[in-house]
Amino acid sequence: MMKIKSNMISGIIATLILSAIAKLLSPFLPSLGAEAIAMLLGIILGNTVLSRASFAPGMKWAEKYPIEVGIALMGLTVTLKTIESLGINGILFILIQMTLTIVVVLYMGGRIFKVSNQAAMLMGAGNAVCGSSAIASVAPVIGATDDQRRTTVATVSLAGVVLLLVLPVLGPQILGNNNLLLGALVGGIVQSVGQVVGTAALINPTVVTYATLFKMLRVILLTVVVLVFARTAQKSQEWQVHLK
Questions:
Q1: How many domains is the chain built from?
Q2: Handedness of CA 121, 125, 131, 135 (dihedral sign)
Q3: Residues 20 and 140 in one domain
């Protein structure tokens, strides 16, 4: 785990206070739960009173490391029966979903929005796998610039916020009360782990469990995505050299 530095303390304390407030409010808003309340408070306060640069290092730490521990602890409570219920269909769903996401994003990036190959690849990885973590992993192997990486992270994060607000409303209307399908929907298309948990928490705790499992399957496949994009970038460079 990354060492806590002095410039992180204010951001970490602010995050802890926000978490405590969310926990205290959760009995009064049982339909939301503490996770969803904390997520919504974070969106509001993070763009207002907590938007100062001094809070950023600590909040970035709190965004990454504690949630990894939380997901690991959540995994301890997941039974083998729950994992088995996903089965081969769940694995195939994630494989198809990730493949379609990458193909569609690459097509839209190149044909519609006319962005560079690197930017399109970063968008594909970020949307298909795990947001900023996937972008950070893919960027070096395809030779992406810092500007391309930062722009892609911002775009993917914004898309995640939109999904956070939309899916808890549309999901149950489309899929009813089928928690497995709702978990597949959230865990299959929402980008970051934190946004997956927050979105699923707005539906119900069972969906959080399923969504986390589907999300874990996507994260496991990050290495495959990095290798595929690295090979694609290498072939693209070789083709350009050949044309010259």
A1: 2
A2: negative
A3: no
Domain that includes residue 1, residue range: 1-77
Query: Which pTM was predicted?
Result: 0.69
Average pLDDT over the chain, rounded to an integer: 83
Q: How far apart are CA 158 and CA 163, in angstroms?
A: 9
Distances from the Cα of 66 to the Cα of 12, 44, 192, 207, 213, angstroms = 10, 21, 14, 21, 18
Handedness of CA 79, 85, 89, 94 (dihedral sign): negative
- Which residues are CB-neighbours of 83 under 8 A, at least 6 positions away? 213
CA dist., res. 46 & res. 125, Å (int): 26
Classify 5 as helix, strand or coil: coil
Tens-place pLDDT, residues 20-40? 998 899 888 765 667 668 878
**Rounded to whole angstroms, what are the CA distances from 243 to 116, 121, 232, 238?**
18, 22, 17, 9
Residues 125 and 153 in one domain: yes
Among 30, 48, 77, give the residue marking a domain's end. Answer: 77
- Say if CB 128 and CB 115 are below 8 A apart: no
Distance CA(92)–CA(109), nearest Å, equals: 25
Residue 108 is predicted with a pLDDT of 93
* Pair (16, 67) in one structural domain: yes
